[in-house]
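Fold this sequence, please.
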Amino acid sequence: MILHGNNSEKDYIMNRETYLNTVTSKYLVPHFKAQGFDIPSNIRMACSLTSGRGAKNKAIGLCWNDSASADNTFEIMISPTIADSSRVIDILIHEVCHAVVGLKAGHGSAFKRCAQSVGLTGKMTATTASDDLKATIAQWVADLGEYPHAVLQGENSGKPKQGTRMLKATCADCGYTVRLSAKWAALGSPICPCCNEGMDLE
């Protein structure tokens, strides 16, 4: 968090992690409480790549169980591919629901009860905010400000994919040429099938 000028709240420029944690403590805790659900105190959020779980590793949010963390904290990650403030917050709410009901509940009845109570709708594995929740989130964003993030479009976005560099091996006697990877070249120079001699690597 960077401080500009005096100490008033409006003079702070939040980073993404501070924003997500502030949304949770300032807005989500009372929002969930009003529906009869308590958000665990051992919980933290971050903007982070979410690959590594799921069939196609395309999760836009993840909640890791507190038992997976060295300090027994639920870890929630929001994908950097999402930048819209309202969408980020409704993804955050979905992941917080997992922490509230426990990850063993999956997207079953306990999760559904919590998710629908706090304003999520649709298929439970891919919820979105209801119209009422969108209106509430809009008020939160108006109060706190926009999510301080720009979409991460991909690790190699705009860059050509570099292929494996192939080495060239040439027979000095007949000119026979072959290409091979550095992995195989490390085992030794290839033998020319015509001259039965070692070939020169370039």
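The CA atoms of residues 61 and 73 lie 16 Å apart. Residues 16-34 form the longest helix (19 residues).
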